[in-house]
Amino acid sequence: MIDRRTILGALLAAATSYPAGSRSNKALDQEALQAALFAFSIGEMARVAAASPARNRFSHRRTLSDHTNRGVTMPNNDTLYSSCWLDLPTGVHADLDIPLNSGRYVSLAIMGMDTDVLALASSNGQSTATGKYRIVGPGWRKKAPDDRLLIRIPSADAWALVRIGVSDKQDLAAAQAVQSKIVSNIETSRSLQRITAPLVQDRPKRLLEQVNAVLERTTPRSPLAMRARRHRQFGLGKMTQVSPAANTAWRKAVFALDAGAIGDITEFGEIINGWHWPDKAIAQYGKNERFRAAVALSGLGALPEMEAVYLTAMTDIKGAPLSSSRQYRIDFATPPPVDAFWSLSAYRAEPDGRYFFIDNPLNRYAVGSSNQELRNGGVVIASTSKPSEYSSVWLPIADGPFRLVLRAYRPTLTLRSKRWAPPNIVPIS
């Protein structure tokens, strides 16, 4: 996703000067940067929503990601996805039936247009929940049926994303059968307005229109609308006349908002045994707009820590950057304590900063609790070629820059409280 933001940003920013008679204002520039960071995640959500096949209808991805999938950076090889972009103006509701009692991991995340997870339901196979939900937007005043849990969202727009766990290729058909049990019933008496990416080539103007389209359909007292108010001087929310100086600062900020300005997700959190542990605010970011933007850039749709922990490694136990010229021994003597499953993936680093799976002779893109050798603890060897240590599980890595990502679904309190330490990444001599 980063490549869209590396479109001659420096040249465009340089070409955007302040109006005659005004001078550069560092304070205004900083405020504009904060406004652009606030807008970024909303723009990403609006862009993806506009590219979806339809509103208020689930689309199902029935295959697992591999090295050919390059639409979203750092995809996973763990789950099937079912996605529905909700459009729920006043008087419209969505009834969703999610197969939580299907004998495998299933989760439903309802995300607001600022990427916050507003509601979450999940199961590792068996749940006391019925899996029946009624989602309603602003102004909904009716009573929900007794057999449905009511979920209120602060905007007419939201993203419902279902994940279904898959052990391996042999398990794919059974997971697809569970996916087919997802039911949505969305009733309305009028045609629905759809948020689309405006056909505006001017990037700052396009982002402004995307954000304002969302804000117009969001209750004024919601956290999203309240956070937007501090950026009114740049036209967010259309609540004030934009001055030439503010418009210039906004344009400069948007053009400068590339991967370097936003930062990598690994800048937010702490390092344990060479692994980056994300900030606890992931998926429910509050006012941390830069962290929110960083996750939207590299991992749109991330789950909160209560549901999933994402650890990233770019260095070994000695602090040296991971190198494809080395082999690495990763001993999961004590596997990640989870109530669902865990996996370890390797990603090639692209020049534009994105990360994708690696083509390899095993067609293996992740290892973890789905591997019999690792369920009760075992060793992973990460290397470009098959290791001589045949008793280990081989995870192919890229011939070039790469990073490792450890995902743990439904982590236990032991893991979330960091009483479990991720394994050392030891270079093999």
Write out key terms for the chains shown.
single chain; alpha+beta; Immunoglobulin-like; Jelly Rolls; 7-stranded antiparallel β-sheet; 5-stranded antiparallel β-sheet; 20 strands; 21% helix; globular; disordered N terminus
Count of strand segments: 20
- As residue ranges, the low-confidence spans are 1-18, 189-193
Structural class: alpha+beta
Mean pLDDT: 88
Number of domains: 3
- SS field, number of helical segments: 9
Estimate percent helicity: 10-25%
Determine Rg (CA atoms, Å). Answer: 23 Å
Report the β-strand fraction as a percent range.
Answer: 15-25%
Look up the CATH topology of the largest domain.
Jelly Rolls
